[in-house]
Amino acid sequence: MDDYCHVFVLRSLALDKNGDVKVRNVAVTFDLFEAEDHRNRGVEHEYDVFVVPGDWREDADQSNLVKALRDLRGMARERQEEQ
Fold first, then answer.
1. pLDDT in tens, 21-69
2. Residue 27 forms beta bridges with which residues?
3. Engineered SS bond to 29: which of 34, 39, 55, 60, CB 3.0-4.6 Å?
4. Cβ contacts of residue 78 below 8 Å, gap of 6+?
5. H or E stretch including 8?
6. Which among 57, 58, 38, 41 has a CA at the least distance from the CA of 49?
């Protein structure tokens, strides 16, 4: 696994219901070419780049259900190894 990876957040300008210009996040990609293609579609499109650790999933916020399921999976593996 890489130590770090680039994440591209694709943004677009849009009008809200009051007619004010707002920036909206419209997608996320790991592909620079996709981000460049998005930006080249018009002046209202842009992207931000973030560098994140390659093991970001290990540090990501998790719901209690996901934690419980992972614990259950770990216990099932331990029991299988004991048999």
1. 999 999 999 999 999 999 999 989 999 999 988 777 666 666 777 778 8
2. 10
3. 34
4. none
5. strand 4-15
6. 38
What is the CA angle 34-38-41, rounded to 5? Answer: 140
For residues 43 and 25, give the distance between their C-alpha atoms in angstroms, rounded to a whole number: 15
User: DSSP letter string over 32-65?
Assistant: HHHHHHHHHT-TTEEEEEEEEETTHHHHS---HH
pTM: 0.61
Q: What is the largest CA-CA distance in the chain?
A: 66
Closest alpha carbon to 49 in 8, 11, 12, 10 = 8
